[in-house]
């Protein structure tokens, strides 16, 4: 849920130098002018120019490396993309895929000076939950206001909500630093691995017996169980129940789904407060653009329209890549931001990997079933059940927040059960925002856009477009929203509907999972993506995994890109000493 503090709209990192590079990093690479005659074309090659790839590229370039980014699409950004999907409306901009930012650590934002490179974030407003009886529960980022708004539904829950948010926030504060740490190799008795384990134990020292119990429950319980423990009213449970399901292939009654509530309560978009979310000015492509600027200013070379077909391996070491055009580019370090399964089985090749690794990567779950719907609107529809006068742009506070479709945990579960049985949900769940209410750069004056993240359709729809069925599902999502936003249907000028097939074929999101691998507890921390390889390394020396399917992903966190760079530097330093 929305955290305690909004993200800043502007930079507070003027003059940050990059004190974050490992000591001696600069001396580990030869200056570019010394390269003629070098055995490799580059010091490092990054596969994929999503935000993780761009962040890794910026860090390598800042460290003095000669670095090349190869991106298969004609543009950078990957899931962090702004597009103009309607040729007849070239000035209508939408966040094509991801739509809110909030998981990127302040440390990464500062190291790349993203605010100086144009990143600007508008804080996300309240969560609103329209209910079948015509009422609407609005949950702003203010404890007292939440208490007042919940009280008509349940006075008991009004008090519990404040305690619940504090409780989740406290656990997030403890767990969040672990996301910035390489997970320990559990089971290994090597001194460096034991040291990593000790570091985790040190982080967790802030938890007492009760805290450990709470955390254990969060990792193992279902979201519904957790919410039943805290609240009595379905209306109050609804927003967290939807949140727990976002990006998941599991309903809120499945064990382990409570964890997603914690995962999405973490992050720090730059103001030091864990849990805030916000809209990026210019859409999510604005974040990719800032990362690209940081990379290019530091000297990284970025080539788009260059798909990598294979990672070159010589004697169990990375040697470079082969592109779709057949060109070979050599480098001793290859960082892949492609889905871990595709990196292993397609780019490296199972014949070069240990059987156990292949078996584990084949087990890595990556099912989705999400549909992204972007709408261009002639005007903002007003929400039934909220007594608020719009400002002169037609904007109410809830337009700056998100509107949840899914009035109870049971409703959310039913949507999932239907998709499991092979049918798209008749009553879908969704998280909808109006980014143009906060950001006037997206649409021409007076017009707006709506971003809807909806679930579920069967994840198996990655096999073919299922175009008519995906469009019919989108019709249903819009019809459900129109019941509480009565002007919605008439306001639609254009729409873009993106289904599981599009996500897999366009971006390489295996199984359509938006996080590059499910966020289930059995594949988090030391298990993500493969036990023994959660340290961003792979069985091939010099090949690193910096995708959202690594620890610290999924989501727009940049942590895998950051950590893969740190590991590559540690390994390089080891070879140089
Ligand atoms: C619809 C949707 C909504 C989401 N909403 C949110 C949200 O609101 N907030 C949030 O935090 N997260 C959200 N996520 C998740 C988040 O966007 C991703 O986890 C994250 O952006 C992934 O970043 P990445 O850099 O690891 O990979 P990607 O962004 O997937 O980038 C990988 C890049 O690699 C390229 N590539 C693939 N194969 C090759 C190849 N062989 N050769 C060269 N290039 C290749 C791809 O074209 C792509 O550009 C959403 C995701 C989706 C799909």
Structure explained in plain terms:
The protein is of the alpha/beta class and 577 residues long. 34% of the residues lie in helices and 15% in strands. The protein has 17 helices and 19 strands. The protein has helices spanning 51-62, 106-111, 143-150, 155-179, 191-203, 209-220, 223-230, 234-245, 258-263, 285-298, 340-349, 355-363, 409-420, 467-484, 488-491, 500-507, 559-576; strands at residues 44-47, 67-70, 82-83, 94-95, 121-123, 127-130, 136-139, 278-280, 301-303, 308-314, 317-323, 328-330, 333-336, 370-377, 402-405, 429-433, 448-455, 492-498, 543-545. A seven-stranded mixed sheet has the order 7-6-15-16-17-14-18, sandwiched between helices. Strands 9-2-1-13-19 form a five-stranded parallel sheet, covered by helices on one side. Strand 11 (317-323) and strand 12 (328-330) form a beta hairpin. Helix 1 packs parallel to helix 10 (285-298) and helix 1 packs parallel to helix 17 (559-576). The structure holds flavin-adenine dinucleotide.
- How are the strands ordered across the major sheet? 7-6-15-16-17-14-18
Which ligands are bound? Answer: flavin-adenine dinucleotide
Task: Summarize model confidence as the mean pLDDT.
Answer: 91
Per DSSP E runs of 2 or more residues, the count of β-strands stands at 19
Per DSSP, the total helix count is 17
Helix content: 25-40%
Describe the sheet with the most strands: 7 strands, mixed
Q: Structural class, from secondary structure content?
A: alpha/beta
CA radius of gyration: 23 Å
